Amino acid sequence: QVQLVESGGGLVQAGGSLRLSCAASGRTFSTYFMGWFRQAPGKEREFVAAISWRGGSTYYADSVKGRFTISRGNAKNTVYLQMNSLKPEDTAVYFCAADPSRALTSSASYYSTPRTYDYWGQGTQVTVSS
C-alpha cells in the first residue's frame, strides 16, 4: 500500500508561483511512475505532468508546458511540481498519483490517463486570483 500526501497549495495572484510537494510512503519510491493531475469544479480530472521512475523523463500537458516543472527527490520519497506564471485557469484541486508497476513507456496514453495510477493523494487546493 502506498500513501501519498500533497502539500503546498494556497492562494496566489496571477503571475505568481507555488511549489507543490507529494510525500510518498514505501521503500520502493524510486520505482514509482509519478503524475500530477488537477480537477476544477464541474470538470473532469485532467493530466498536468508526469515523471518516469527510470531516467527521470518528464511529460507535460500543453497548457502548462514552459510554466510548470515536475521533479523528484528519491532520497526524500517526494515528487514536486513547481508552478510559475500561474493563471486563473490553473485554479483547481491538484492530486499526485503513483503507479508502482515499473512500466517502461513514454506513451501519452499511459502517463496522461488517470486509470494508469493505482494510488492517489487527497489533493491540495490551488487558487489563482486575477
Topology, element by element:
Blueprint: E1 4-7, E2 10-13, E3 18-24, E4 33-39, E5 46-51, E6 58-60, E7 68-73, E8 78-83, E9 92-99, H1 108-111, E10 119-120, E11 124-129
Choose one word for the global shape: globular
Count the DSSP helices.
Answer: 1
Annotation, overall tally of beta strands: 11
Mean pLDDT: 95
Q: Which regions are unreliable across 5 or more consecutive residues at pLDDT < 50?
A: none
Q: Please identify the structural class as seen in this structure.
A: mainly beta
Tell me the radius of gyration. 14 Å
Alpha carbon gap, first and last residue: 40 Å
Helix content: under 10%
Largest sheet: 7 strands, mixed
Order of helices and strands: EEEEEEEEEHEE
Strand content: over 45%
From the structure above, extract its key features.
four-stranded antiparallel beta sheet, single chain, seven-stranded mixed beta sheet, 130 residues, 3% helix, mainly beta, 11 strands
Write a short abstract of this structure.
This protein is mainly beta and 130 residues long.
What does this structure look like?
The protein has 130 residues and is mainly beta. 3% of the residues lie in helices and 45% in strands. It has 1 helix and 11 strands, in the order βββββββββαββ. The strands form 2 sheets. Strands 2, 4, 5, 6, 9, 10 and 11 form a 7-stranded mixed β-sheet that branches. The chain has a 4-stranded antiparallel β-sheet with strand order 1-3-8-7, with no helix packed on it. The chain is globular.
